[in-house]
From TrEMBL:
This is Glycerol-3-phosphate cytidyltransferase. NCBIfam families: cyt_tran_rel. The keyword Nucleotidyltransferase applies. Keywords: Nucleotidyltransferase, Transferase. One of its GO terms (molecular function) is nucleotidyltransferase activity. It holds the Pfam family CTP_transf_like.
Amino acid sequence: SKRVITFGTFDVFHVGHINILERAKSQGDYLIVGVSSDKLNFEKKGRYPVYSQSQRMKILSALSCVDEVFVEESLEKKPDYIQEYNANVLVMGDDWSGKFDTMKAFCDVVYLPRTPSISTTEIIEVVKNL
Ligand code: C2G
């Protein structure tokens, strides 16, 4: 069986997230999701997520296309996670195109097109302005 791994924050879960997870799953049989920790998110984006990491993990675990979730503590640990979870393919949205090509030493790397015109940042702005 083919094991797929993907990573992300998945904050304020939306249809762009489900689209990439379903397409990631269809690259194989078993989907593992590394969920960025609150701390990693603060380091990456300078703010904490709206939903805590335990809430984000609970939402992801409840999806039928997701088989396993774990906390992603560091972007640099990708090789460790890929090996620990025996992943055959790494899937990321194309906003990360080329960024994880060094992982080709460990598994296949696939970048899928993002769902246009939806993002957590945009949802936050819309809600702010209500
Ligand atoms: N995504 C998408 N379409 C959107 C929005 C997001 O396909 N409209 C995808 C992204 O490309 C990514 C996944 O959904 O593959 C999760 O997106 P984010 O939560 O924004 O993830 P990010 O903070 O970029 O974290 O180690 C990698 C990082 O942890 C990725």
